[in-house]
Amino acid sequence: MAWTDMITESSRKPTRPTRPSYVPPPFRNTATTTSFGYPTESMHSGSFSGAVYGFVRSSTSQPGSSRRGGGRSRGRGRSGSQRWPSVNQNFNNQRLVDVSENFDELEITEDDGSNINTKENSAINFDAYEDIPVEVTGSHIPPPVNTFTEIDLGQGLNDNIQRCKYVKPTPVQKHAIPIAVAGRDLMACAQTGSGKTAAFCFPIICGVLRNRFQTAGSGRGRSRMAYPSALILSPTRELSCQIHEEAQKFAYNTGVKIVVAYGGAPIVQQFRNLEKGVDILVATPGRLVDMIERARVSLGMIKYLALDEADRMLDMGFEPQIRKIVQQMDMPPPGERQTMLFSATFPLEIQRLASDFLSDYIFLTVGRVGSSTDLIAQRVEFVQDMDKRSHLMDLLRARKADGTHGKRPLTLIFVETKRGADALEYWLSMNGFPAIAIHGDKVQMERERALKSFKSGMTPILVATDVASRGLDIPHVSHVINFDLPKDIDDYVHRIGRTGRAGKSGLATAFFSDKNIPLAKALVELMKEANQEVPLWLSQYAENLSYGGGGRTKRYGAGRFGSYDFRGAYGGADTSADSYASSSAYVDAVSASTGYTAATDDAGYSVPATAESHSVASHGYEFDHKSVIATGWD
Ligand SMILES: Nc1ncnc2c1ncn2[C@@H]1O[C@H](COP(=O)(O)OP(=O)(O)OP(=O)(O)O)[C@@H](O)[C@H]1O
C-alpha cells in the first residue's frame, strides 16, 4: 500500500457544519479569512456579471461529438453557430453547492463576492521565461497561442482566468492548452512551478462544460454510483487537495462539480460529496481503487484522464494501482478517452510505460526535460552527517539576519526518513527555530495542520520527507534545504522546485556528504544546465568517480535540449529541421511548422518492454533531432 493511503480514517477531524455560501480561497475577502494565508490584493469585481458562453473561433465539429463507437473523434465540439447556455448569471447572488465540506483549506464564508481577492499572480515574472526552449513532437500538432482569449475556453472559464489574474499563459500553457482543447492525448514535461495545473485543468473544465450541454451531466441521478467524466490522479493527498482547490477556482460559478477523494479522510464524507454530483474527480490512487471496489465510483463515463506527476505515478510504487485504475476497471480505452500526462521530469523508461495509456499523443517539452529552472540559485556544501545540524543552524541564523524582503520567508527542509523529520523538528524547536514536520507516519489531520501552519507563516520552517516534494505550490518558500540529499536526481529537481515558482527566484542549499557521491555526476550536470556555479570539489567527484551519476545521463541523455520523446529516440524518426530564435517570429514559425512533427512513427509505440528496447531508448540522444526553439512569451 502506498504511504499516501496508510493513515486510518478515524484520525480525520469532524466535518464542520455547512454554511450558506462557498467562496474558493483566492476569491475571498482578506478581512473575512482566518489568520492563515498572506494578504492578497483586492480584485476588481466589475467584470463578474454573468457567464454567457460564447465562442472565439469556429470549427466544423459538433459540440460534444461522441468520441466513442465511430473511432477517435478529434476536436471536441466547437461550433461557431452555437452559443453556450448561461450557467450562473449573477455572481453576487450565487450560492455554490459544490462545497467540499471536509477540506479545511476550503472555507465556507458569508462573502457575497463583492470583494474578491486572489493571489499575487499579476506579479509573475514572465521575463524569467524568455528563451525557454520548447519542443513538440507528434502528428498534426495544434499551434500554440499567445493569449488565453485565442483559445475557445468559454466565457465562464475566461472570467475565472481573469479573477485569478492570469494575464497571459505560461509557456507550457501556450502549447498544452490548444493541444488538449483539440482533444489530443498529451505527454507534457515542463519545469516546476511553470503552471502545469492550469494547463490540464482548463481543457478539462472546458470539455466538461461543452459535454454538459449534450448529456445529462454531473454524473449523478442514476444510482449511488458516481460517474465522473474527468479524473485527475495525483500521488499525494496534499497535492490532490491543492489541485481540487485550484480546479474549483477555475470552475467557479460554471456549475462544474469537482470532488476530491484521498486516503486518511473519512470515506463516508467523500461518498456524500460524490452523491451531490461530480464532473471532475480529483483523487489519489489508493482511495479511488477503494471507492471503485465498493461500487461507489464508475469510470465508465470518463472522457478526460489527467495524471499529474505522471512519472511518479508510473514508477514502481504506484504503477500497479494506476494500471488497475486505467486498464482493469471500466474506463474507456485510449482513443475513446483523452489522456494527459504532466510532470517536470519524464525518464525515458517511464515515457515508454506511459505510452500504454496514450493514443497518437503529442509530446511536449518546455525547458529541458527533468531540468531545474535557473530561477533557483543552487548551492551545494560539503557537510558530513555529524556536522549537519550545526551547519543548518548557521545557515538559518544567517538567513534570519538577511531578513528577506520584508516578508516572512519560509524554509523547507528535506530529510530522508520520517524519524529524521521528527527528530529535526524537535531539535530546531528546542533551539529557538519554530519548525513543524510533515511525513507519511503522521495522521492526515496532523499533516494538514503542519502544512497550514507553514503556509500561513505561523511556523516558518517545515521539515519534510518526500511527501512534500512534488507539486505543492506554497507561496513565499524562499529557501529549500536538502539536509539529506535524495538518491534520485529527479527527486532533487522536484524538491528544489518548491521554491523559484511562477517566475520568482529562490534558493536551494544541499548538504552533500560522502553518502551522496553517487549523485555527484547528475547533480553537476543539472547545475550546469541551470547555469549554476558548480563547486570544484563536486566537479572532481563527478569526474573522478565512476558511480554512474544517479542515472541522469542514463535517463535523459546528454545535457542538451531536444529529442527527448522516446518514440523519436527509439524509432529514429525525424522531427524536422526548423528552429526559431526570434520571439516575434515565434508563433508564426511554430504554426507554419506543424508539419515539423514527423515523429509519430509507430515504431515508437510498439516497443516491447525488453532490455534491448529500453537501452536503445535510453541512449537515443545521439540522434540529431531538431527542435523548435521558442524564445520569449510573446
Ligand atoms: N498564466 C499564469 N499567470 C500567472 N500565474 C500563473 C499562471 N499559471 C499558473 N500560475 C501560478 O503559478 C504557480 C505555479 O503553478 P503550478 O502549481 O500549476 O505549477 P506546476 O508546473 O504544476 O509545478 P510543479 O511541477 O511543482 O507541480 C501557481 O501559483 C499558479 O497559480
Automatic annotation (TrEMBL):
Keyword GTP-binding applies: no
UniProt-listed Gene3D superfamilies: P-loop containing nucleotide triphosphate hydrolases
Reaction catalysis annotation: ATP + H2O = ADP + phosphate + H(+)
Domain Helicase ATP-binding residue range list: 177-364
Biased composition (Polar residues): 29-38
UniProt keyword RNA-binding, yes or no: yes
Pfam families attached to this UniProt entry: DEAD, Helicase_C
Composition bias, Low complexity: 57-66
Domain Helicase C-terminal residue range list: 391-542
Domain DEAD-box RNA helicase Q, first and last residues per copy: 146-174
Protein's recorded name: RNA helicase
Lineage start: Eukaryota, Viridiplantae, Streptophyta, Embryophyta, Tracheophyta
